[in-house]
Amino acid sequence: MVAQPEAGGGLANLGNTCFMNSVLQCLVHTQLLHRYLEKRQHSAKCRRRQGEFCLFCALEDLVQRTFAQGPRSPAFAPRAIANALPAIAKGFRLGRQEDAHEFLRYVLEKLTKEGSAVVEAARPPGVTGKYTALQSWFSGALRSQIQCCHCGHESNTQDPFLDLSLELRAVGGRVAPDLDGAMTQFCQEEFLDGANKYKCEACGKLRRARKQFLVERPPRHLSVHLKRFSFGEAGGGSGKISAHVAFPATWQLARYSAARTRLGVEQTPPLPYQLYAVVCHDGGSTHSGHYYCYVRA
Fold this sequence. Notes:
single chain, 297 residues, alpha+beta, Cathepsin B, Chain A, 2 domains, two-stranded parallel sheet, 25% helix, cysteine-type deubiquitinase activity, Papain-like_cys_pep_sf, ubl conjugation pathway
């Protein structure tokens, strides 16, 4: 078990960069990524050309500056990353309010592209193409299963993910009261019927079918996004779901594991995730507000 890093210094706001700073703080306090950045394992073999921006190298510099004196480290202005926003996230501009979750996705995708391939022994079964250290820490896979209601034939595919994005509002308007409620809704069975029937490979005909998502390969570090912003509200605008949504300090993911359908409840190993970082948005709409974060250290 890798120890949680001690708290680092703060990050200076460079003008509507709270979304960026909050995400960066959560990332550099992520155990495995922090250790990798601290040892400068990427820059030792980085092939960037002179003057070219490398996000991995910039994060190494950020860790060196903000963790030099632990929590007593002075606030650091991450200008190199802020100035490179358009290179990290297409359409992003310095000085403009942006979405933290969207930024996180862009960051993880860029780090995946910049990262070096890991040894083949670390590659999970079924994963093809380049597989990096970043993916080994954050990437998981969902099992998408469609089962014919007529003959029982199953079609299973794996969908890789770097985070789980969960709806809070269910059909009918009810808001999930907690993280388990949102995840249960995500994994709920749905039926393909009527004009949306499934073409069964075994039957060779359009059939009513059951579809469900479950976690096939859990990541080492799990990122969960709660969809608090809703679109198409009355008047055609957007709004925010401000209802309280509870989440535990330790979350058990085993009940949503595909292994449970194969091994049964008693034989499925536990999948505990301990909370170490949270990004929060304070504000009532998608166009204004302030992001901040909490990290465990």
